[in-house]
Amino acid sequence: MRALLVTSVGVTCAAALTLPLATPAASAPAPHSASALPPSTSPASPGAGPPSAQAEATTREALAPDTPDTPETAESKLRKAESAAEPAGSTQSLPLAPLDAPSDRVAGAAAAQGLPQRDARPFSLVGVVWDDAEAELHGTVQVRTRATGTTRWSDWQDVETHNAEHAADLGSAEREGRTVRGATAPLWVGDSDGVEVRVRPEARDSQDRAATPVPLPEGMRLELVDPGEGPGEGPGEHPGEASAPEPARGAPAGRAAAVPAGFADTPPTAAALPEVLTAEIAAASAVNAELAELGATVIPALTQAETLESVELAPGAKPYIGPRPGIVTRKGWGADEKLREKNFAYTKTVKAAFVHHSATGNNYTCKQAPSVLRSIYRYHVKSSGWRDFGYNFAVDKCGNIYEGRAGGVTKAVLGAHTLGFNTNTMGIAVLGSYASTNPPAAAVTAVSKLTAWKLGLFGRNPKGKITLVSGGSNKYKAGVKVKMNVISGHRDGFATECPGARLYKKLGKARTSSAKLQGR
Predict the structure, then answer these.
(1) 466 vs 314 pLDDT, higher one
(2) Which conformational region is residue 492 in: left (phi greater than 0), alpha (psi within -120 to 50 degrees), or beta?
(3) Which one-letter DSSP state was computed for residue 100?
(4) What's the Cα-to-Cα distance from 203 to each of 99, 102, 105, 134, 236, rounded to whole Å?
(5) Exposure pattern of 302-321 as b/e (b: 16+ CB <10 Å)?
(6) Which of 328, 487, 350 is closest to 394 using CA atoms?
(7) DSSP secondary structure, 30-74, as one string
């Protein structure tokens, strides 16, 4: 097997001209602030937060239209425009503390940890992380949140604690060369400014009084993620509220429907693009240059005939490739390209697709999906310590398809989605939780369309089988050869509930539909 390929692409941009240039080295990830102080609870400034936490959020400044262009102001405007090209966003990291006084604890039991009700700067997604990525959290995590600007507190919500299976492979550069942390799944809670959390360890086996209680992991912290503003959003806007129309069901078809359904009411235009693309944004866009113009927010859908015309086929080869679906780019959902590592990592090919659910809950609208993605992305990189967004693609409940990890949607980009089986595969996350909720038909259809196209580019039959070599998981030891479906669920490679029982049952239909779209 050919060794892992890692390349880097950088671009220097000017207001009138953007050219891709090579950059030689990867940037180091920003250190995690484990010692950040909790936000202020002062009534005068609820959720103000410490200067170190405030500094992490990117501030957008409007350019004064009536200021004369002097050499100083022109340079200043350029810097401001480059800064404005990246969305704002922040992460509050709050250390957990014991909830029970020593005198209140049952003898031999591990102490529960958490935080009492408190104010916070606005956030929309929560999760709990800890120091040792190899340590498991044996217990339950529950949170309650307060809607921003109100006194309304939600009910207690469960956070999925078994999240280690969504990660880079053991021994990989992403796993060993970074400060990777243990983490729960992230939970989308919507626009909030108050939080309460409790983490309870598993109870000792009542039948075995000598059993040693399993302690909670060390260094647990609550992560509160603000996704920042996305394309077309302004300060104070809350996408997905009741006043926002829910997009039409179904995915786009044909070149004329290039704008995904979720953005049909506000289609991106050239005028909406920033004056200046940062080098990081341009680099992430340049790897898709054959599919869409630099800085595009959407890769347009193609018909079957147009798709085949765009692909170089070997002489006499029978083209089993589905029509290219419309795909919202990282630029389209507002990825902050300065968060990720600069280099792109690739493997040799794409042999299979693993379907996941994000376990972030179903309490989101499709117009909020870009905000959910920005939150997960920040949680993966800033909180969990990964190099980039973990999944190669994401699908929302309205059937919109999103570019995930950077590196190019047609390429074999190495992800961090299925521990032990990230090499030569791709990961697709359906946004939501589908253990007891049926996935929308539009989402399953989108999975079929995406796999019919992407797997077809690598000559894979969606109804076929493929042999993969395990990199090590709790189901298959490293080096074991495993025969799997070309479209598999996460649980096929790891002992996990993911992608949820209800979504897993739909994979047979997805395989059949995907193969049919390929012309099989």
Answers:
(1) 466
(2) alpha
(3) S
(4) 16, 17, 12, 21, 44
(5) bebeebbeebeeeeeeeebb
(6) 328
(7) PPP-TTPPPPP--TTSTT---HHHHHHSPPP-PPPTTS---HHHH
Sign of torsion over alpha carbons 363, 367, 371, 372 = positive
Q: How far apart are CA 483 and CA 467, in angstroms?
A: 4
Interior angle at CA 31, CA 30 and CA 32, nearest 5 = 115
CA–CA gap between residue 68 and residue 74 (Å, rounded): 9
Structure tokens at 366: 């499709």
Distance between CA atoms of 396 and 362, rounded to whole angstroms?
10
pLDDT for position 369: 97
- The structure tokens 């669920």 sit at 489
List beta partners, residue 92: 224
Three-point CA angle 7, 308, 397, nearest 5° = 75
Sheet with 327-328: strands ordered across = 298-299, 327-328, 401-403, 393-395, 425-430, 352-357, 487-489
- Between the ranges 196-210, 218-232, 399-413, 461-475, where is the mean pLDDT highest? 399-413
Contact of 80 with 61, CB cutoff 8 Å: yes
Kindly report, residue by residue over 277-293, the tens digit of the pLDDT: 999 999 999 999 999 99
> pTM of the predicted model, to two decimals?
0.76
| Residue 40: band (very low, low, confident or very high) from pLDDT cuts 50, 70, 90 | very low
End-to-end CA distance of the chain: 29
Q: What is the mean pLDDT of the chain?
A: 77
Task: Say how far apart CA 329 and CA 409 lie, in whole Å.
Answer: 9
Closest CA to 347 of 174, 197, 183: 174
